[in-house]
Structures are given as structure tokens and as C-alpha cells.
Amino acid sequence: MFQDVYEWAGEFRTTDIRKGLDQAFAPKDNLTLEIEAVADLIRQRAGSEMDDDELRPRFLADVLGRVNYAHPFREGNGRTQRAFAQALAADHGWELEWESVSQEENDAMFIASMRGDFMPLRQTLARVVVLAVPRPDLSAEAGARDASEGYVQPYRRGGRPVRGYVRRRPGR
């Protein structure tokens, strides 16, 4: 993501970092352990919890909270976290509408998660997660085939809408 900007892009940081007086991120020596824990969390829970409207925000908050605590890079952690969460959601047929989250809300939810309060992060994720579903005006044959196969097409590719699909919020 930042390979054209920083020579060390994509490499774990080699120093301990903090934000303000009370927000220390994972020690540099624990980064591999922290990221492996995130990978384990995804392997154990993504399959079942990404398909459940109530569990999805909790799962994504747990993943993002842990990645935020790890803060593995010297720069660009927030943008990388959002891209990672977007990719994780897309793997399960979802999209995250981050543009509706203000910088203030973003900062507050991650500060709260660093203090062990994941509720603001869960509430935000519940609001911004969007499911891609086939449009009702597709041909009956294509719509029936897609529905019977449980096929979901991501709404956006490279920031542009994909023709023939619309987004739908969970539970609607």
C-alpha cells in the first residue's frame, strides 16, 4: 500500500510506539504473536460469524481492535486496518462504508477499544456494513440461478459500481 512512499513499507516496526500518554500499542517484540492471534481469530470465527447479523459487528470489532492494538507499522496503520477489514468483509460478501465514519468517531472508537470497551467499534461496524445483492431487474433466469447458488457479487471494484448489483443493509 505504501511501497512507493516508504522504503520500509510493509515491514513491522522496530520501535515501540504510543499515541498520547495513555495509548501504548503492542511492544515491537510481540508483533508477530499479535498478528498470528488475529489470523487464528479469523480462522476460528470468520466462517460462522460473518454470516450472522448480530455476531458480524462483534467479530469485526474483535479483529480490528486487535489489529489496532498491534499497530504493526511505523505509518499508515489506520488506512491499512480499513483496507484489511474491507478485504475481510469482501471475502464474505460484505462491504464497509467507511466514508460515513468521521475522524472523530474513528478516533473515539479505537481509543475506547484500547481501553477494553469495544461497544463503540461494534456499533459503528453494525452501521457501516453493507451486503451486496443482485438487483431485482436482472433476468429471472440469472436472478434465480444466483439466488439458488447463494451467489453474492461485490458492489464495488476499484471504487466503481459493478453493473447489475445494488447494496443492501443486513436484515433489510
- Sketch the topology as an H/E string, one letter per element: EEHHHEHHEHEEE
Kindly report the spatial arrangement of strands forming the biggest sheet. 3-4-7
Percent strand equals 5-15%
- What's the number of domains? 1
Return the CATH architecture: Orthogonal Bundle
Low-confidence stretches: 134-140, 143-168
User: What's the helical proportion of residues?
Assistant: 40-55%
CATH superfamily: Fido-like domain
Alpha-carbon Rg, integer: 18 Å
The name of the CATH topology is Fic-like fold
Average pLDDT reading: 78
Overview of the structural elements:
A three-stranded antiparallel β-sheet has the order 3-4-7. Strands 1-2 form a two-stranded antiparallel ribbon. A two-stranded antiparallel ribbon has the order 5-6. It has one domain: Orthogonal Bundle (Fic-like fold), CATH 1.10.3290. The chain is an alpha+beta fold and 172 residues long. Helices cover 47% and strands 12% of the residues. α1 packs antiparallel against α2 (55-70), α2 runs antiparallel to α3 and α4 crosses α5 (119-128). It is globular, with a radius of gyration of 18 Å. The protein starts with 17 loop residues before the first strand and ends with a strand.
